[in-house]
Amino acid sequence: MNKRTFLQAGLAAGAMAATAPAAALAQAKAEGRKLGYAMLGLGYYATQIIMPRFSECEHSKLTALVSGTPDKLAKYGAQYGIPEKSRYSYYTFDRIIDDPTVDIVYVVTPNSLHRTFTERAAKAGKHVMCEKPMATSVADGEAMIAACKAAGRKLMIGYRSRFEPHNLDAIALAGGGALGPVATIVADHGWTASDPNMWRVKKALSGGGSLMDIGIYSLNAARYLTGEEPIAVNAMESTDRSNPVFAEVEDTINFQLLFPSGATANCVSTYSANCNRYRVSGPKGWVEIDPATSYGGQTMRANLDGQAKPRTPPAVRKSQFAGQLDHLSECILTGRDPIVPGEEGLKDLRIIEAIYQAAREGRTVKL
Amino acid sequence: MNKRTFLQAGLAAGAMAATAPAAALAQAKAEGRKLGYAMLGLGYYATQIIMPRFSECEHSKLTALVSGTPDKLAKYGAQYGIPEKSRYSYYTFDRIIDDPTVDIVYVVTPNSLHRTFTERAAKAGKHVMCEKPMATSVADGEAMIAACKAAGRKLMIGYRSRFEPHNLDAIALAGGGALGPVATIVADHGWTASDPNMWRVKKALSGGGSLMDIGIYSLNAARYLTGEEPIAVNAMESTDRSNPVFAEVEDTINFQLLFPSGATANCVSTYSANCNRYRVSGPKGWVEIDPATSYGGQTMRANLDGQAKPRTPPAVRKSQFAGQLDHLSECILTGRDPIVPGEEGLKDLRIIEAIYQAAREGRTVKL
């Protein structure tokens, strides 16, 4: 199967799936056909968190590696049985256009490189999974969406919590009226950054500090828990610029959101405390997860009848990581759009820019 | 003992206590001398929460009642053995000047009446315990402080959490460096208001909505946990004015505080969800209480070594209510100032006015 026949097969599968998505998935499974991922950027998250999860996937497999470090290509190539011809440097990456084993490129680089690799992947005819934040500016995010659209390829952002059972349960509870109309969301995300040399505190690579890295989880949670887009934003920053870690990016930037329904969110984003939790509350009760958006260990409590109790969400078949990887493959096989497409990443980016503006100007920014 | 000799005795005790407070308290205890409280305003909080706690007190006793409802005076007068001559209506209240059994008047009326009763109590030569918020405006709070100062009487505000063991432990942990420099405080206080007829939603009586009533706990906690005064305030309000409950006052008004050390606070104040908790976090750990400022049932967790664990605070001898009541008595006996004097209430009021202004004007208000 060369690139052309593959693309045609993909189109055919997509056309079929629009009328019968379940049948398309069943057929792919019966044929043992899995979509191939190239991992681009072999850091901790890609190699230690994502790559081991392909073994759980029904519709996805790891078929290529892209890295600037030859030793990593050799090590993980051997470990995952990736042939040398499917190991790419950033210089040889564009040759991936001729690699029929690759359907999707998963971009896991520092944030400011997401745009260029997404554009190159789309130009090579590949679908793209891109880590969050999708880019370091709204302009870059728009360009990525345009590039994938022009190439007729799908773009999905790595919002893995949307495939995590506790988060899915909280979304269902909040959206299903179990809490009454959502009144307040409190979402706190942070960790203690102490290494002044990591790329996350270099503005040219990260685009910003805690908000780009971890505060985005508070923001995205407030949006998926309400199912609404905020109409106003407040923010307050606290950064010790004399600390070399924070010479270029913000430490703490807490923000407030107001949603059209009247729901509000108070969100923490910090590099000076470890926190990973949220609670969504309404007149009839609340549900909280702590930790909420971590790689594992989610713990849930709900107060639905005047008493706080531990809660176990309905089981799901796959980890959040495999769920995320397979979702894009399923969307390609069935011709559907991902639930967290590029446009979802762009919505977060627009609000992130509003948060920075609100903090800088000391005023409520309307959206 | 008439009023004059009583006042002289009080002055003498105060003078002695300045040099030997412990001795003054021991002597009062040995003599079985307790300071007498008049409860002014016989609603739920006074009659069901406070009055039963005098039995726990070492230095305080209930000696008079003030109410606009004769039935209440009769009922609680009989229950607590208060003689008829020490039962006052709001019209006869000023005669309390001649009641030597009363040292302190505890004002538990709707907020907007705090000023006038504090002034009348001070004019009658009585010390004053006043519920929070101390008043409905900074101007009223200042007048109350001036009235008590002019009368040479003490004014204390009913911040009972300052006598509650879990809160004391959290203050000690945060202030003692166990968390590292405090980075963020998240404090959420709310309950679900549904009665459009209660005084709390009548602006002329309450001065404001959830912030005056329950959000003040979030605010006061952020201040006692940092031991600092905020220098900047953001706020975001969400109120459905078509709901008769909220025709006059705000429902949700969440706020953010920035402290001189760089510590930040994200606070919820709402009448549309039940919440009563806070967490204070720094780079080395966090401590949380949930419920935090309730009448009882405080539950604490701390993460001081990378793991969240239940925590039991050091025991204290008395309930927060008895601790609060006795504190003012002890201050009078020893000539000391209360830890939560009128000035403490005034600090909250100034910030409350800034919070309303920040929400109204959509901008950061500097303090």
Largest sheet of chain A: 9 strands, mixed
Strand order of the largest sheet of chain A: 14-13-12-11-7-10-9-8-15
What fraction of residues of chain A sit in β-strands?
Answer: 15-25%
Question: For this structure, what is the CATH class of the largest domain in chain A?
Answer: Alpha Beta
State the share of residues found in helices of chain A, binned by percent: 25-40%
Specify Rg of chain A, calculated over alpha carbons.
Answer: 21 Å
SSE sequence of chain A, one letter per element:
HHEHEHEEHEHEHEHHEEEEEEEHHE
CATH domain fold name of the largest domain in chain A: Rossmann fold
What is the total number of structural domains of chain A? 2
GO molecular function (chains A, B): nucleotide binding; oxidoreductase activity
Signal peptide (chains A, B): 1-26
InterPro entries (chains A, B): Gfo/Idh/MocA-like_OxRdtase_C (IPR004104), Gfo/Idh/MocA-like_OxRdtase_N (IPR000683), Gfo/Idh/MocA_oxidrdct_glycsds (IPR050463), Glc-Fru_OxRdtase_bac (IPR008354), NAD(P)-bd_dom_sf (IPR036291), TAT_signal (IPR006311)
Domain Gfo/Idh/MocA-like oxidoreductase C-terminal (chains A, B): 177-367
How is this structure best described in words?
- The structure is a homodimer of 367-residue chains.
- Chain A is of the alpha/beta class.
- Chain A folds into two domains: 176 residues, 3-Layer(aba) Sandwich (Rossmann fold); 144 residues, Dihydrodipicolinate Reductase, domain 2 (2-Layer Sandwich).
- Chain A has a nine-stranded mixed β-sheet. A six-stranded parallel β-sheet of chain A has the order 3-2-1-4-5-6, sandwiched between helices.
- In chain A, helix 5 packs parallel to helix 6.
- The longest helix of chain A is centred in the last third of the chain and has 20 residues.
- The N terminus of chain A is likely disordered.
- The interface between A and B is large, with 40 and 40 residues.
